Amino acid sequence: MRVSITSKLPLLIKPFLLCLFTSLFVLLFIASQTPLHRLTSSTTTATNSPSISTSADLRIRSGYTSYEAYIQRQLNKTLNPKLQHIWTTRDWDRKVRVFSQFFDNLKRRGLLSNSSRALSIGARVGQEVAALRQIGVNDSIGIDLVPRPPLVVKGDFHAQPFGDETFDFEFSNVFDHALYPWKFVGEVERTLRPGGVCVLHVSLTKGTDKYSANDLYSVRPLVEMFKRSDLVEQRKIDGFGLDTEVVFRKKKKKTMTD
């Protein structure tokens, strides 16, 4: 009897091994589909996205069932009473001082002037706007989902509430909060005047906060999305958790003599 049972063991193992290999193949196939949440994918949170060859360097975070759900999550941060208290008290002077240094540096490099009409995108309670006005850029305003008069007006950076070619200078350190980065960039280029400058502070090497909607790993996706602008410069910074400053200048319109 022992010999009989032993002789049947290979026959019993074969179906088991076949099932095991099939399961491993299925798991490997599922794992290979992870890029579905990248910029070039077709998901509920990233529809109508352009084709960008460097999609591995820009990933859209999953988890939003609708645009309204995304907006509500952003509002949860902006309307948080504890954060609002911090932003308007102990953080205010420090952030205005640091932003003033950033903007003053941009002035010395010829990228910003006192005569510039400036916009701060995702300005929260308005520290960036206060900093711009403090260094002499008086025609400055910010936009955010929640207005904060007189420094910040209500606006969604996916659809800015301004006309075409309104600003000479636009600044943002909330690019990582854009659910649709190509719309964010498109609105910057729409509202920026020819020759105007856009400065973004982004994180390329560190993780951003839990409210971020995308993760950026190089400037290549930005260069591809800024179709109507030239990359002016890129430099390392220490800006409240963000490590890179990227500067674009919108191309001037060609004339008949060009």
TrEMBL record:
<dbReference type="InterPro" id="IPR013216">
    <property type="entry name" value="Methyltransf_11"/>
</dbReference>
<dbReference type="InterPro" id="IPR029063">
    <property type="entry name" value="SAM-dependent_MTases_sf"/>
</dbReference>
<protein>
    <recommendedName>
        <fullName>Methyltransferase type 11 domain-containing protein</fullName>
    </recommendedName>
</protein>
<feature type="domain" description="Methyltransferase type 11">
    <location>
        <begin position="119"/>
        <end position="200"/>
    </location>
</feature>
<dbReference type="GO" id="GO:0008757">
    <property type="term" value="F:S-adenosylmethionine-dependent methyltransferase activity"/>
</dbReference>
<dbReference type="Pfam" id="PF08241">
    <property type="entry name" value="Methyltransf_11"/>
</dbReference>
